[in-house]
User: Fold this.
Amino acid sequence: MAEKVLMKGNEALAEGAIRAGCRFFAGYPITPQNEVPEYMSWRQEEAGGAFVQAESEVSAINMLYGAAATGVRAMTSSSSPGLSLKQEGISYMAGADLPCLIVNIMRGGPGLGNIAGAQGDYTQATRGGGNGDYRTFVLAPFSVQELANFPKKAFELSEKYRVPAMILADGILGQMMEGMSFDFEPVDPKTLPQPCWAIGGKHADRARNMVFSYALGEGELEKMVLKRAERYALIERDEVIYEERDTQDAEVLIVAYGISARASIAAMNIARANGIKAGLLRPITLWPFPSKRIAELSKKVKAILCVEMSMGQMKVDVDLSVKNACPVYLHAKPGAFFPVAEEIAIAIESALKGRKDQLFNIEDLAKKAENKIYAVNNPVCKEGALL
Amino acid sequence: MYQGVRIAGFGGQGVVSAGVLLAQAGLVDGKAVSWYPSYGPEMRGGTANCSVVITDGEVSTPVVSAPDTAIVMNEPSLPKFEPLLKKGGLLIINSSLIKSKPKRNDIRVVYVDCNAIAEKVGSLKAANLVALGTFAGITGAISIDSIASAMKKVFKRAKPEILELNRKALEEGAKLK
Assistant:
């Protein structure tokens, strides 16, 4: 392995994309992902590619649509509110079956939220936040090393299945520095096979090919959607990636991805030191989700604890996998605070012993709101502020 | 060995680059390291800070919420970071700029006249390195040699005489206990 260098997550991601053969980048500044376009602005030129600072996120995603249609490995990046703006373009690219890479370095939401790291875009990313029946690959790195490695993986998956790929990380991963190394040979785009999806036909040397995200003829759209559904089913069967730690003898299984998984590993060690056998399953692909493996494990453990920086968005997928085989609890840090190992360790114990400390309980939440909403002398709004 | 460090001060005091230097030095020593900046909406004249982890194991959380060591370089940083320190933790105070005294008695406090020592060595800009030297001397988490060799990687365009001055600042800091 090459000598380790100290690199910031966002820069490692950008360099990783260049080494994966990415030769087109369009983006618009937003914290906490600004180092990605900043790095690309000089590095693309050096690599013989193109960098565009677009006038908006909407513009950037449509530039990506155009670039991807030419067959180049193309990428855009943004952070949460920016991703909301890009949804139309992502839906169009899914509809046009174009491979591309979209990066979301998540921050607090909804709305403009704040600029700290968060994981509140899970549902948007894994369900497809635009219109129509579509999916995108969603890769969730948990280290600077994985931020560097995943662009290549994302492009390869995206091109193999002709499905847009997303890397879903957060502000902490983007901003932090860690020791890492580039442990793969850089891809020379000239050595990649001629992309069959690229537009062509103006000159005689290439067959005529046009790119559409629509099919207006009778029954044609359904055919397209069904063909896509076949590929999605194959992806769900064959392309699930996850990591397991100490699941062999676990009584409590933690499910966490990205930066939350790192805090969970520390928590797992605390729990084990206190005599509670905790294990971790870290989904690396959020779509396709490791449902099958979680279902298997749910039959062996006493409880599952979901740790996420969102209000149970990932837990929905865990619930769907577990189908009530064991109780599933939530430890959430939605306000863009970082999960703390000691608190997760308490949540692990709570999950095992049926306590409530450090767990989110839907009934309790409803009661709190009920007291405000239905109390006669305690209206929800007081001088315009929500209580 | 595990050291979670918070370094805090005014923007311009080099607290963020001192953190990068510390992380790079840990990497030179073959440790697992992380560095994480405060990138929140800070005011001009407010405090900047960063988290650094150096460990023999793996870095779980890069955000150091309960530091083993806090290095505070200006007055507003003291009340902000003193309460976070672990019991028995080390608090390095830049006494050139901080006149208040810490409130806790379950921590180890070291006063370092960083600005004066740095000026004596040749440049006020090296005040952050004086504090880093004290950290290295007391904790042994990192050696002065490792920080000095990390400087060549972090400050790529620094002239040899500046690197020499920086090394002196580190050594002066390391003399303090």
